[in-house]
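Exercise 7. Given the components listed, write out the predicted structure of the assembled complex. Treat all entries as one system.
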Amino acid sequence: MAGRLARRSLLQTIRSGFYNATILKAAPAVSFASSTRGEDHSTGLGSLFKAVALGTAGLIGFSGVAYADEAEHGLEAPSYPWPHNGILSSYDHSSLRRGHQVYQQVCSACHSMSLVAYRDLIGVAYTEDEVKALAAEVEIEDGPNDEGEMYSRPGKPSDHFPKPYANEAAARFANGGAYPPDLSLITKARHNGQNYVFALLTGYRDPPAGVSVREGLHYNPYFPGGAIAMPKMLTDGGVEYEDGTPATESQMAKDVTTFLSWAAEPEMEERKLMGFKLIFVLSLVLVTAGYYKRWKWSPIKSRRLIVDAIN
Amino acid sequence: MASLAITVAASEDPVDPKPEVEELGKPRCAKQWLAYQSCVKRVDEDSVGQNHCTGQYFDYWGCIDNFAANKLFERLK
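Answer.
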């Protein structure tokens, strides 16, 4: 008897503990607000409530009070209407070709793309002969040869894009301590990657009143914190496109962002095709399964139960 | 015809459509612009504090961006 009573009270305390936790989690804003207003009635339960609530408020981040967060996260990039956004849309391959040209002429001086090989471009942006010619323009260090020495040779399609710096330390040293990240996966490695990269490249503006960035950094509202080491790289007419497209800043940013999206997700077109086939087949399977289930259940669903109750 | 087009393009830099599209968005974002301007005035007058107008700046440029995003891509190839 006493044991059962003790067990009940344990269950009750557990349950009420959960209840208290959800109450506390649901109302941190209230106690946060009251504590910021400086009210200080500390009953035992009230101050415990405030202490726990302040902790959870920090975790949940629900407060609308912290304006300092804005620059920290950067301005949210808008959703640009990328031509390859649709559920069955492919990349714009002429944009990929132009984007690679922009990368090669503007970005590759500082940014590596060491996961992409020249031959990945065959059938995507260039023909095989064009890729062979592109690769051959670059000197690759290879070796050791039979004499044990490293030697230089022109590139082959199987080589990856060359790195501008030997290692991260060299990259930082050449760029004032900042490391220009590898761009192979950048649109997947940043929140809202595609839109972020485009907004960043075209978003160099004067800082707001009261904000200054130190010498060597540049203001960019989309960059978390606002102060980016990379200067504005895209200017109108900076690249001369082979196909004669006017090379405005926005055009170059669009093309290079499309190229970077491809580099991060080269399988996208195949994935969308596979997805379409999958959904199509699965919906047929769903209809079939539904019909089969209803057919098998029909005796049960159509039976009559007669209850003959005698009181 | 092809060579004529090339010489014309080479002599003048192409003009970026983005600033023009952003100008078009300005009337829609007038409220945020005015809020930013009044913040700028407050910050300029205050010589003591470390205040800044990032919030109003973000509100304004966020508004312009949302308007300009679709319009800009219509003008790009």
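Discussion: Chain A has a mean pLDDT of 85. The two ends of chain A are 37 Å apart (CA to CA).
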